[in-house]
Structures are given as structure tokens and as C-alpha cells.
């Protein structure tokens, strides 16, 4: 991936009630994993390996201490210099926010515009994986459309009602995005809440949504909505994936690291996972 061609946005803005009390004082992405990692380490490592030099991170204001303590200078992910750096924004939780509190959109728009990047990769929380973003970018450039989404084929019994499942045509273009409640096939295409989009298109959409009076904005929901209004393509991820949606799934994901196949797939693939030396 060419330097400065892509910037990244990581968000952890939605509370997952089923993960309480684990997330009482920290966001989902700061949960410990396999003893020495935090979940956010995997997303930051994917960004680092893709040679993305600029990251915008978005968290709720009640998680300031845990986030800053872990990310710190960002040196473990090569984000501690003038050329390689990160930006962080904190704001009120979705339940407490009012429309006038959405000034974070202005900061995000300014970040994207100043990055001068052609593409922006958006990564949400809850999905634990080791993704090669350079492969996603190749597919994104190939189709020359505004949106490319990442998905994985998973058993139907692992899909929850809050998930989004995708349908594709023979060319891997998205034809339908539906609630997990509609899952009927033995294997479903689980949307991993990871997008790659054209930066100029994203700025235009953010400004449009920012102008809606009396509306509390959520960038994740906006991107999900536009999947069906714009031509969008899929990138199939075939590596290890664990969807952290409740305490049981979090426990199960950690226990799976005792199995050599899952352990090697996530932690010893061709993509290295960088972590803070002291957690």
C-alpha cells in the first residue's frame, strides 16, 4: 500500500450490554485477549502492516483513561512520529448525546481532508481477526466503486439478531444487506463491520448527514445504510474470526487459543500482531 494513499478510522462507540461488567470502565476494543494482547492490537497491527501512516480513533468519554494508558505514544504500531501518527476523539455515549454534541464529525471530516488520502478504511469493534488490508485495497481499486465491505462465511448458529448478513450476485456485488434475524442458510455471509471507501465520497456523505437537524449521528449506522444505495462489493476474509458480542463469546474466543489451529491462524499467520510490551 502506497504511503498516504489510505487513512484509517477505528471506532468503539457502541456499548455492548451483554459484555457488562467487563466493559464497565473500558471499551470492547480494550478488553484483554490471550493474556498479553488487547483486542485493538489486532486492528492497529493490520493498519501498521498495510503501511497506513495516519489513524483517527473514536471512543466514548468514559473510556479515556484505559485507552490512553494502552495506546500511549503509539510507538508499538509505528504511530509516534511526525509522518506516522494518530488522532483521538472522545465524546458522550450514544445514550447521553444530543444532536449538538456531534462536533466530532467536524474533527473527522477535517482529519480525512487533511490526510489527502484517496481511500479511507473504517474498522468497528467486536470483530477479532488478523486482516490483510492490502488485499482489501486491491479489490477496492479493481472495481473503482465507492464502497468495499469485508465479510466472512460463518455457520448460521453463530449469527445474532443484531448482525448484518449479506447477499451477493455471481460477481460478488452486494444485492442485499439484512438483519441476522433473517438468516436461513446453513452458512451466511457475516458483515465484519469493516469498510474501505473513497475518501472524497465519505467526506461528502459525512457533511450531508451532519446537516440533518435534530438527528444523533452514528457513522457505523450511516455506512451500513448506504450499502444498499450505492454499488458495493465484497471482500471475503478467510482467516480466523471471533465475534465478541457477549461474555460467553469473549470467553470462548480466549479458550480457542488453546487449540493449535486457531492459535496459529490468528497469532502466527503472515501478518504479525504488535502489542504493548506492558499491559
List the main descriptive attributes of the protein structure presented here.
alpha/beta
What does this 3D model show about the protein?
With 279 residues, the chain is an alpha/beta fold. 29% of the residues lie in helices and 26% in strands. It is built from eight helices and 13 strands. The strands form three sheets. Strands 1, 4, 5, 6, 8, 9, 10, 11 and 12 form a nine-stranded mixed sheet that branches. Helix 3 packs antiparallel against helix 5. The longest helix has 12 residues, at 104-115. 37% of the residues are buried.
Structural shape? globular
- Which residue ranges are poorly predicted, with pLDDT under 50 across at least 5 consecutive positions? none
Sheet with the most strands, sense and barrel status:
9 strands, mixed
What's the gyration radius in Å?
Answer: 18 Å
Distance between the termini: 30 Å
Strand content: 25-35%
List how many beta strands DSSP finds. Answer: 13
Alpha-beta content class: alpha/beta
Summarize the amount of helix as a percent range: 25-40%
* Helical run tally: 8
Mean pLDDT, to the nearest integer, reads: 87
SSE order: EEEHEHEHEEHEEEEHHEEHH
